[in-house]
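Dear Dr. H.,

I hope your travels went smoothly. While you were away I took the liberty of generating a structure for the chain from your last submission, since the lab meeting agenda had it listed for discussion. I wanted you to have the full record in hand beforehand rather than looking at slides cold. The sequence, exactly as received, is reproduced here:
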Amino acid sequence: MIRRFYDSPVGASNLNGRFKWYIPLALLYILLFRIEQGIQFFDRREVIYVAIFMLFSALILIRLLNALPIRNRSSAGIGMVIFLLPAMLFTSWISFLSKLDLVDSINWNKQAFLWLLLFVFLFLLLLNRFSNGLAKLEKYLIVLFCSLCLYQSILIFSHAPKMGKAVSSSKILMDSKNPLFMKVDTAGISDVYFIVFDAYEGNASLNQDFGFNNGWVTKSLSDLGYKVSDHARSAYHYTQYCISSVLNMDYEFDWSAYSVGDYVNMSLVLQHIRSNRMCRIMEQNGYAIRNLSFFDLEQEQRARSFKPFTASRSFYRLILENSILLRFFINPVDRHQGESNLETYRSLLRVIKEDTTRKFVYAHFMLPHPAFYFDSSGGYYPDGKGKFPDAGRNYIEQVKLSNKWMVDIARNIQAFRPGSMVVMQGDHGPILRWAGDKVLTGIENPFSAIFVPGGTPEEINDSLFTPNTFRFLLKKMAIGPNLIPLKAESGKLLKPDSILREKSIEDP
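The corresponding predicted structure, in token form, is as follows:
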């Protein structure tokens, strides 16, 4: 089949014949890239299945190209390559267009994709018009893709054992923490709520960065018995790292020595959220787990998806994950984000009012995080561009709406589930790239408001380090053992090798 693909007759002046060589090479590079990514989601046996599936897919793609008329094969092949290009290459293209002000801050993904299609169309037009003059360029493209395939193959074979070790080491590290049984005194606690408002900046930084006085929500929640920490600190400014550090009550691990790039790091962080320590302790003590977030938990799958933080084990998503094609149809500034926030809000109120079981609830709003689907009164803007042309003003509008939702949620919990412990926090401050040229100070100063029946522990102070949140609250609830508070350090990552060595020394 492949031989017939190359032996098809072409005219001497037609570049299609030579281009047929670089199309499957580009596809091979993409499939190799996907296999490297696949190691992060699958165990070693499953990696073999994925590799076989991808090789079979490559043959099907080549067969489909072979079925086309000769004059159309190059165009179809190049188009296919463009649609499946890894996102890391597309990100570089977006950065280039951003410097030229050719994409805006809301639809940058789709606009960059359309600019790329225009560029490829002009490129193909030039090839057809000046094919003889560009023949050497085509040879360079073939050499380039051959080099990429060779490089990617070396990376996979050299790093596959390390990446496999990272997965197994991660399981050992998580299991060494999670079996810790902590007996909780449930007599005075009905439910435990962990409610995240994504990218909600702390009060001190809101005032400094935006000149916004957040006193209304502070007073409203304080009147309900909440402790508001104006100068709270997170360990990181990436959502998945922040959530993992809070739910696992510890710093995340640095897996950079096990792979190239951030792929293994990110996927293992998602796995750490999935099997987090807090949910396991709550489950051990008879609490049901209710998941209203876009992260999977062992006890309950995610309620909805949000593309940048949603990893998939399905084959078709594995092939398309982080590709231009998937990014075009599922924008990281998710067009369903506004609807998802509304549904999360309604679902949370239903759980509070109707679910009488003792439970640990994790709800996650992509609010006041961009895009800007709401104004302060709840007005809806389906294009995600918000009420004002300025991103800062739109961000504050969504802060105001978040405040109203928080107070409403707090009042409903007190009315329907009195005696519940409640944590309402931002994971980190606002996203830097939405601030234009202005440097924001509060990227690691998230909002934090906590209610504990019988009085909030004194450790929950104005400068709370958020990974310590549940360490302090479990100390209030637990019969034992107590967890020693972490020293607040920004961006700290634990070295897994040193911890594993210590564990091997301790083990008999």
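Two observations you may find useful: The CA atoms of residues 221 and 407 lie 6 Å apart. The first helix runs from residue 2 to 7.

With kind regards,
E. W.
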